[in-house]
Amino acid sequence: MPSVKVYVDDEGAITCKPDPLKVGKTQGSVVIKWKMKTAGWEITGITDPDGNPLPKRKFIDSKKDDKTDWKIRDMNYDIDEYEYVVHVQSLKTGECIAHDPIIRNGGRI
Fold first, then answer.
1. Does the bond joining 18 to the residue before it have cis omega, within 30 degrees of 0?
2. What is the pLDDT, as a whole number, of residue 107?
């Protein structure tokens, strides 16, 4: 299962590692898990660059996995790069911020 570590620094900048996330072409689906690594923050959603849900024919079951993590099932067979936005929120202040890394899908291009 591919995993993306999500960090928030003291200035409120989000970093995702790896970026881009490389997902190999498969005969089935791949679960991608985002793991919040900074205490006091939680992932609140993953959207497309316009703030809409990821395309349902390519990415399904986008949901919170537990208190800090998020997961999506990548059903996409197309070799391409897909932008997405990780939304996070401070548990202390309620501040919401977002970051736009890339899913490189269908191969190690």
1. yes
2. 52
Q: What is the total count of domains within the chain?
A: 1
Q: Mind listing the pLDDT tens digit for each residue in 25-52?
A: 665 678 889 999 999 999 999 998 898 8
Query: What is the domain-level CATH number for residue 29?
Result: 2.60.40.420
> How many Å apart are CA 55 and CA 50, to the nearest integer?
12
Largest CA distance in the chain: 43
Q: Which pTM does this prediction carry?
A: 0.84
> What is the β-pairing status of strands 80-83 and 14-17?
unpaired
87 and 43 Cβ atoms separated by less than 8 Å: yes
List the structure tokens of 78: 């197309």
Q: What is the CA radius of gyration of the chain?
A: 13
| Residue 106 to residue 60: CA distance in whole angstroms | 16
Q: Which residue intervals of the chain are DSSP H helices? A: none
Give me the domain span that covers residue 86. 3-105
How, if at all, do strands 14-17 and 3-8 pair? antiparallel
